[in-house]
């Protein structure tokens, strides 16, 4: 046995002796000398201490809470076997005792004894909890409450009243009776149910306490479940339907039409909020303002209330528009109704681009352009909408000062049907700066023959039509002028001339390469290697004989690096018209 326990046992023997002699004042003094809670695991010792303390407090006229605290610990299962058999009857009679001298009750009517103040987990003579049977109800509907109670007392508590304390939206607490004249039977789980009617203009209720009333004395147990209930306005019968366009288009505000249809109810408001993670929503086509907490006053029954908002996306994607709305009446908000509206945004036009050099030869994708050179960009379109469109204007705006665009070759306006194709050719020249950049921003102003998308729209697209929308501009090393005859006669000699100048600061070794073909007979070698000093010009003539007639494509001519033949400085595949040979 530990020294501390030995001391407490010796002290308890002295206290018990004074207690039996009726010297309660001395008992009270001695009890305060020890920390009895530290020996709570010694059930017989701790039970005797609590019993003596409860008796001491019972003799005082104003220590009801302290008496209740000590006595109920004595009644818990761990300590009850060590308490006199008559203790429970004495405990229960304390709620009914009346002074013979003053004729006043020892525990006055409506005294509140708070069980939740106990810090001792062993104080479990009654296990109680209460909850609402629903999470929400409509106004004027009864609210069902359930209380569960389990007793470990040796006998029943007769003629008790079961109640609950409920806190409303305004933090007002009210006591509601659940059951009267109940016998709290031990070793049995008792379930009590009842319906309550809260005050008007209340939207939320929280069940805070379960109350057991014995002869007008309230034993208050803190509810464990923290049960809450939401009171909604009576079902308004309001319904929502949405009208969406079949497809949304990039850079065009898509109108969404909502229709709230009411029934016989009126005199309330609909509160609507609209959200979208991957697009912009706004109440006007200019896409200003937001769509949060839009209020629609319903002042007439059996009526349709319409509202239109717009969704805007600068990228082609699939979005989900989220609607949240609820009914509000007399300060009460109904449950939130959530609805998702899927909408796909597409490009109004599908775009492809091809770049040609000054000899009308296609520049392969990924091949750098050259500084101080002339090019043309062929922009091909196909209409991607399900409605006819009219192209009103077509413009390419440079994104860098290093590129200068000429006016596009296109006839405007153009009326097009769905899936129709059209194209525009635009010449441009590069400056002297070496960089990696986009060519420019294409802007098409168009009208869509649709009642959904009215008015003029602008479609913007960054050129060229590649994944990165970027192209490199490298420094020009060779300036090439190409003289090619536009026509000739079959079997008669033709001649072309290529003028080449080295405009770099270092010597360059080049190879003039001409592909072999069965349509033309080349006079001379197909491969010629030449060395050029800076600013050194040279003329490269080439003679050939056409062997066929008609519009013929000349075999590809290229100027490549002698050190790296795969590096091409310049190439061309011109077209020539060859007539029949002249009559002899």
TrEMBL record:
It comes from the Eukaryota. InterPro entries: TRAPPC11_C. Residues 506-559 form the Trafficking protein particle complex subunit 11 C-terminal domain. PANTHER family: FOIE GRAS (PTHR14374), TRAFFICKING PROTEIN PARTICLE COMPLEX SUBUNIT 11 (PTHR14374:SF0). This is Trafficking protein particle complex subunit 11 C-terminal domain-containing protein.
